[in-house]
Design a protein that fits this description.
Helices cover about 35% and strands about 25% of the residues. By secondary structure, it is of the alpha+beta class. The protein has a domain of about 80 residues: OB fold (Dihydrolipoamide Acetyltransferase, E2P) (Beta Barrel), CATH 2.40.50. Strands 1-2-3-7-6 form a five-stranded mixed beta barrel. The longest helix has about 40 residues. The chain is elongated and about 85 Å long. The termini are far apart.
Length: about 180
């Protein structure tokens, strides 16, 4: 066989249906591999945030609250790593603490480029006060905190979408002394 015959055979194979089928199959395998890899990356990020959040719990929120094992076991889960929805329970700029809808306290870091909005109005960080209901979107950091990209102040839903009201334990109960 000379070189011309080899070239003709290769050209004939490249134009055949079998070659086209092979290319389609390889393309599908490549796309599936990319989707699988993307899923692994997302899962790794969520798991990393959960681990970092747990490792830094004491630094962010104080000592861990221990309880009966049946309560601790039912509260396991991976918190949302890229945001929070709930009430602001503490303000210490550049950080705020939000009680999320899953009853976790999340430290939110407010940076200079963080957008703070209420309806269509752009606000300053000083408008973030305790008991305001917010939606936060951002990125997790290695300390288990969320670096806010956008914070939107919202009217509090009537049932708080599962968010328990914040109870102030520093207030003495009112005793009715006018009993008859």
């Amino acid at each position: 066989m000379n070189i011309e015959q080899i070239k003709n055979e290769i050209k004939k194979f490249a134009e055949s249906k079998n070659f086209k089928k092979l290319i389609y199959v390889l393309g599908i395998i490549f796309i599936l591999a990319l989707v699988f890899q993307a899923g692994m990356i997302v899962g790794f990020k969520k798991a990393s945030f959960s681990r970092d959040w747990g490792d830094n719990y004491e630094r962010n929120f104080g000592p861990k609250r221990e309880g009966p094992s049946f309560i601790r076991d039912n509260m396991k889960g991976i918190p949302n790593a890229h945001g929070a929805i709930g009430k602001i329970i503490k303000v210490e700029f550049p950080n705020i603490v939000v009680l999320d809808k899953d009853q976790t306290e999340k430290v939110i870091i407010i940076k200079d480029d963080t957008s703070i909005l209420e309806k269509k109005e752009i606000l300053q960080k000083e408008s973030l006060t305790v008991d305001k209901f917010v939606v936060v979107i951002g990125n997790p950091n290695a300390e288990g905190q969320i670096e806010a990209k956008m914070i939107r102040i919202m009217p509090a839903p009537e049932n708080m979408m599962g968010v328990a009201p914040v109870i102030n334990t520093n207030v003495a109960p009112v005793i009715n002394s006018n009993k008859q």
